[in-house]
TrEMBL record:
InterPro entries: Pirin, Pirin_N_dom, Quercetinase_C, RmlC-like_jellyroll, RmlC_Cupin_sf
Domain Pirin N-terminal: 8-119
The protein's name: Pirin-related protein
Record domain Quercetin 2,3-dioxygenase C-terminal cupin: where: 146-232
Family classification: Belongs to the pirin family.
Record organism: Azospira oryzae
Lineage, opening ranks: Bacteria, Pseudomonadati, Pseudomonadota, Betaproteobacteria, Rhodocyclales
CDD domains xrefs: cupin_Yhhw_C, cupin_Yhhw_N
Domain of life of the native organism: Bacteria
Amino acid sequence: MIQLRPSDARGQADHGWLQAKHSFSFADYYDPREMGWGALRVINEDRVAPGTGFPMHGHRDMEIVTYILSGALEHKDSLGNGGIIRRGEVQRMSAGKGVLHSEFNPSADEETHLLQIWIEPALKGGRASYDQHRLFTPDNASLWVLVASPDGRDGSAVIQQDALLLAAHLGPAEAVRHALAPGRLAYVHVIRGQVSLNGVALAAGDGAKIADESELAFQGGAEPGEFLLFDLPPAA
């Protein structure tokens, strides 16, 4: 089963300094049919105006991954962590039993474009922690890049859930495959360009819920494509 989630069906919010698109219910956008997919709870596509951002606020019991599309984002938190992430880097925060953080665009003239992703942890009430590091040179290859995993293999960010987050770039003649173990769910989010998934055409901003599929075959379209794949544990 592949269920398309078209880009224009996403929730939208205009806060002036923040333009946001929500793949799943978030803040003032609520759709009881779109409360997440398995352990995946949030994919927000945010555009943050120069010199603005999210002031200090709290989270708990959530794995939060930030994937930069352009620009930069400055992080500070109540654990004493701080840093600026850019394209080709990943930021992961395990909120655990509670943490405060802020996220700001440090540029005076450049917009920050990012995806913020929330994944529910396997166990609640854990220890809060933070990590950021470089994953790959942006737009450099059509091979899978492991962004996040439960064990941090291949230089990925460590998340407290039996889930994988992978990224890929595909040119028009390029293809990649991913085997999905029995019972596992998957979700695809297209960042830019065009991609086909098992023959289903997807464009920038589109998503797809996946269940009862053993193999996922991705083919590049007329425009170079970039997308994320979430390999998720069976639904509880």
